[in-house]
Amino acid sequence: MQTEPDRKSWQRLQVQIADDLPIYLVAGALFAACLSLFWAYGIGETWVETLYTNAHLYLAAALGLVIFDICWMLSRDRPEAPADLLLATYRRRVTTPETLARVPLLAIAVAFMPCFSTLKSMIPRFSPYRWDPEFIAWDRTLFFGHDAVDALQPLVGHPFVTSVLAFLYHAWILLIYVGVLVFLFYRATAPVTRQYFLSFLLIWTLVGIVLAIAFPSVGPCFVGPIFGDTTFDAHMAYLQAANEQFSVPTLYAQELLLHWHRNGALELGSGIMAMPSMHVAMAHLTWHAVRRVSPGAAPWFLAFNAAIWVGSVHLGYHYAVDGLVSIIATSAIWCASGALLRVWDRRNDGSLRSGIALAT
Q: Environment class of residue 358 by beta-carbon count within 10 Å: exposed (0-12), middle (13-18) or buried (19+)?
């Protein structure tokens, strides 16, 4: 027979899952569409392989966060019995209804990124790359007749600055793995968890796939190798020269992406896509979420967002308009996700929550 605390915990878990139902519905629809495409094209096994890789990355991020949390806790409390404190703390944390309700969302994140990565690699099958000339022209309109990389060169075109931007561009991956874990399980982020996660799914789908298929392009660093366009050869030569003074790791990543593209690989992270910039989109989403829970930290994330946008152009991955479109689309999805959840909560308060309370 259930005790009163057990009954209340079960009720809280049910309420939380009911609150998250719009996320499950959206995720279910996305998975159904993705898996149908994969099996139609005979690449279902590839998705499973990248799923394991992605799970390992989330596990590594989780272990890193736990180690950091343990060190922080022990240095702050300096307990006489550290093992007892840690066991009691983590037993309490992992058994709360709020934590248990977030585990299915983590499973969605683990499974979803391989879906995106596989679809990104399939973009040339749906629509050939043809928008680069248009985006080059749009950038020149924005920068008064100059390419964006040339307009930015006097500001950031110094080997050390280039190297810093390249490392920040790679550090962005922490937003995907550490960021998702923090927004799912860190108590202070609870007020924005649902809006963040729903936006996360919709941005990767609508911005990262739908817009990418509608406006396929390869970006400045690839127009030369793929199309023989010499527009950005001088800038790519600068990046190679800068790499001889300070490491520019994005150049190695670009070589790998080009290798995967030429061999039709469907690896996690493979696929060439300039419009839009998912780096800028995810950095902007994180800023939107952080400013709701930590106004003091928000300026730092806004600065990181700006650095990623500048870096995406300077490092040759994107046109300036790619980031601009990403920011506009991300902001629209963030607002729409919040509005959708508010509508759901008004309905949920009047029906599902009442039904759960009566049933328990």
A: exposed
In whole angstroms, give the CA distance from residue 63 to residue 58. Answer: 9
Query: Is pLDDT of 141 > 90?
Result: yes
Q: With contact defined as beta carbons under 8 Å apart, do 329 and 207 qualify?
A: yes
Is residue 112 within 8 A of residue 176, CB to CB? The reply is no
* pLDDT (tens digit per residue) in 163-221: 999 999 999 999 999 999 999 999 899 999 999 999 999 999 999 989 999 999 999 99
Question: The whole model's pTM is what?
Answer: 0.91
pLDDT digits (tens, 9 = 90+) for 142-170: 999 999 999 999 999 999 999 999 999 99
Q: Which of 205, 210, 208, 214 is nearest to 134 (CA)?
A: 214
C-alpha 232/C-alpha 214 separation (Å) is 24
Residue 232: which residues within 8 A CB-CB, separation 6 or more? 147, 149, 220, 221, 223, 224, 316
| The pLDDT of residue 113 | 85
| Structural domain count, the chain | 1
Neighbours of 346 (CB within 10 A): 10
Residue 265: which domain range? 4-359
The confidence band for 228, taking pLDDT boundaries of 50, 70 and 90, is very high
Give the C-alpha separation, 232 to 181, whole Å. Answer: 38
